[in-house]
Design brief:
- The chain has 112 residues and is mainly α.
- 68% of the residues lie in helices and 0% in strands.
């Protein structure tokens, strides 16, 4: 066999090898970049979750330790009859009475 027919095969193999190594290097760079993005996304997600949980705990602690319930509503006698005025259901009865009177077109006057 003559070696004159094999001229340039080493260069062809070298180019193919460089091409394969370049593709492998590019894929490794993409893989490391996507791992970096993934870890950053996980870190931000964890920070957001812990921040939300801390807010929930702060709100629960505030409501348990510092919350003062609102003062009772003063409702006019037209809306709450005297029998209901002292009960807890007076605001509900007032809303129902207000809704029925405004539906009938009756004007309301309330003096507190």
């Amino acid at each position: 066999m003559k070696r004159s027919n094999e001229k340039g095969t080493a260069m062809l193999f070298a180019i193919i090898l460089v091409l394969v190594l370049s593709v492998m290097a590019a894929s490794m760079m993409f893989l490391s970049q996507s791992e970096t993005w993934s870890s950053m996304n996980y870190r931000l997600m964890t920070q957001a979750r812990y921040g939300a949980e801390a807010g929930i705990h702060m709100t629960a602690n505030f409501l348990l330790n510092n919350y003062a319930p609102p003062a009772p509503l003063r409702v006019c006698r037209l809306l709450c009859p005297p029998a209901i005025t002292s009960s807890f259901l007076c605001p509900l009865a007032a809303v129902a009475a207000l809704a029925s009177r405004t539906a009938q077109g009756t004007p309301l006057s309330c003096h507190l």
